[in-house]
Amino acid sequence: MLANSIPHPIPYQGSKRRLASAILSQVPDREFARLVEPFAGSAAVTLAAASKNLFPMFVIGDALEPLVGLWRAIIKDPTTIGETYEMLWFRERKSPIDAYYEVRSEFNRDKDPAKLLYLLARCVKNAVRFNPSGEFNQSPDKRRTGTKPETMKQSLRQAHKLLTGRCEAVTSDFSVLFRNAQSGDFFYLDPPYQGTSEGRDSRYIAGVSREQMIDALKILNQKDIPFVLSYDGHCGGKIYGEALPTGLAHRILLDVGRSSQATLNGRDDATVESLYVSNSIPLKRTNRKLCLADFAIQRELFA
Ligand SMILES: C[S@@+](CC[C@H](N)C(=O)[O-])C[C@H]1O[C@@H](n2cnc3c(N)ncnc32)[C@H](O)[C@@H]1O
Prior knowledge:
Layout: H1 20-24, E1 34-37, H2 44-51, E2 57-62, H3 65-76, H4 78-90, H5 96-110, H6 113-122, H7 149-163, E3 167-171, H8 174-179, E4 185-189, H9 210-222, E5 227-235, E6 238-240, E7 249-258, H10 260-264, E8 270-278, E9 297-300
Parallel strand pairs: 1-2, 1-4, 2-3, 4-5
Antiparallel strand pairs: 5-6, 5-8, 7-8, 7-9
Helix pairs in contact: 3-4, 3-6, 4-6, 4-7, 5-6
This protein binds S-adenosylmethionine.
């Protein structure tokens, strides 16, 4: 399945859709029982792995309950969720902005996963934002209308086909999935960037400190569970997050090209993301496999 034909029904800022192939090329060529993604979001890596049949089973977890509810609905009954999305999308015809705010208020009362799907498709940058009381408070995108219902329904059906019968979706703090890690698991980790998940600028419903991440990785290393982690990065001289200490994993730098924000602002800033590959995964001699379409990828050992 080509990268752009892999379904991606949940529009989500920070999705790893474009990087999924590069990330999955780090998975060693042996049999695993499960791919576990404790910070699933739009589960771009799980969907890409399922489309390549790289794992027989998948576990997707996230702290955001309605998002996990949405995944459960996709796995069980994509038709109903698609029809509800369509109904919400067409509710906008008379007065789009008012309709958006109406759905947002309803979602903050009932936490209906279909409403979250609609809000994500229609909000600024497809980015979840919560106020300190845990209410979704992102504004509507006034220029774009969000995924058309027919396209959304098709994407939901395709994701359902890939995951049904072999994917469990769990609402939990990431630490629970780490504690339950079993031999035969492979973990892909994409926690919020440091700085986006703590303090007043809370972007996601929950967050992870650097110390918590380090402790959690130690658990995986002790259990000898291989992992790939997306963590710090930089764009145009701005650094996002502090690199992890030496010894926990190898570090690779992925040059992911120009950021969409830089493009919008007419700048030429390259975005570079770190990928940490657990020490138990043998380093590959060549990076040719990683040099995919629009990103040049360098691999370096942690200095
Ligand atoms: C950077 S996003 C992941 C994006 C994902 N890789 C994708 O392709 O869409 C981080 C996710 O972690 C979740 N999250 C934040 N803190 C968490 C925690 N303590 N435990 C579990 N999930 C958490 C957020 O709700 C968010 O969906």
